[in-house]
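Internal tracking record. Fields below are filled automatically when a chain is submitted to the structure queue. Please do not edit lines marked as system-generated. If the sequence contains nonstandard residues, flag them in the REMARKS field before resubmitting.
Queue: standard
Priority: normal
Entity type: single polypeptide chain
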Amino acid sequence: MSIITFELATLQDAEELTAIMKKTFDEEAAKWLPNKDVVDYNIQPPGYSSLEVTKYMIEELKYYKIMYRDEIIGGIIVTVSGQSYGRIDRVFVNPVYQGKGVGSKAIGFIEKEFPHVRAWDLETSSRQLNNHLFYEKMGYKTTFGTEDEFCYVKHIEKKAENLLKDKDLSMIQYENCNLSSTECYQVNLEGSAISNSNVSRLHVSNCNLSDSKFQNINYRNTLFADLNLSESKMRFVTLGGVQFLDTTLGDGGNSVSFERCDLKGSNISNCDLRNVEIAESDVTGMKINNIPVDKLLKAYDLVNK
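SYSTEM-GENERATED OUTPUT FOLLOWS
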């Protein structure tokens, strides 16, 4: 297939791209997951069939649609951090067009589209043996493997100025230093502390921040997306203007707790609120489906007298 092109996806493409992604990953699941009880998020990534997730990725990531003549036949989604490091989040091709070199063209296109990137990362299921052969053919090397997941990286030799590599810089203290536009890749910062510093416009992607603490920080106009915040705690947080979109409780289903929070003027719509409890709270002016809650409570009291 020689007439393959790539274009940045738009929101008008979201529905069609979602349908193609769902078809692609569902067929992969049928092939590699005969046991329907097995969950594999590399074969069926979270939100792969969600229109809203597709819209998010189009708006916030680099999402390219793969075109055969005038037809969308797939997509490739990447995250580029800084100038030198990128991650291939998802690549999918309509099963009708698989085995024709489309995937190879997509990987090649991305590498040319971001010529400054020196390392590309990706993950794939340990079950998808054809993916392992494909990525190795494309020059990717295994960096990590378990019974569920394999991680790959491709290093592209490029001249890099001011590069510190394979150095032990632990226990160093930086004070009143200019580290603007610094890029970190595969760096161990465990136990590090950043205090009284300007880290505005920081881009953190594909990192492990478990058991971390963020205190007394200005997060205005910040995007938090595609995160796992289960079992986390937020205290004395100002949420004015914050939006929670397409958010779930995860597989564990542990409930969210709001205590001593000022949520006046908030809007909750199109949400699953089954078994939600509100106690000892001021519900003045609160409405459910445009019905004042205080009137509902008065009616309840009358019926139960």
